[in-house]
Amino acid sequence: MIGRAFSMAAQRRMEQQVAAGLTRLKMRWWHFGKIHSWVSHDLADGQVGAVHASFMVGGQEIRFPRDPEAPPGQTINCDCTAIAHMDDWERVHPGDKPFSEPEILRNRVASGGRDWVFFCF
Which domain holds residue 40? Predict the structure, then answer.
């Protein structure tokens, strides 16, 4: 519930900024957090679009993470967020992935069905 309220408020604030004249503002889908996440959300990570546009997630158009109008299968346990984006902003670590290779290998779905791999550090 709280995550949905946060997403709705963030979306509304970006819409207000565009209406106030910040027309170059866009939004970026950002997946972060859980290693055992929705694969469709992992694939949506990094999508950039207009504030009033929708993201393509799992073959469905979704306005923002946890959109109440989206199918429950795309919103339940979602830990993604839409962050503000401007094309001319410098990205400090543009090639960064949300997870390290060992973390990806621990996730059976994200690793393409490979057996679980555990690492000792």
Answer: 2-87
